[in-house]
Write a structure and sequence with these properties.
This protein is about 75% helix and about 0% strand. The chain is mainly α. The chain starts with a helix and ends with a helix.
């Protein structure tokens, strides 16, 4: 009987039959906001990585020319 109760409790959570304070409805703009934030983060990381690799390349090039 306990298995049936657990199963029904799981079904209740999946189907959101009792939307309480634990269920958070997200707005449709959340996806586009997240995508924009991720895009900006990726640009920032790529820019920093490019600066570091260029700096490393200059150091390696200058040390071999001497």
């Amino acid at each position: 009987m306990e298995h049936l109760k657990n199963f029904l409790a799981g079904v209740k959570q999946v189907l959101v039959l009792d939307p309480g304070s634990q269920y958070i409805l997200t707005s449709r703009s959340d996806f586009s906001r997240d995508a924009s934030s991720l895009r900006n983060d990726a640009k920032r990381v790529a820019s920093d990585l490019s600066k570091v690799t260029n700096k490393y390349g200059e150091q390696a090039y200058n040390s071999t020319r001497k």
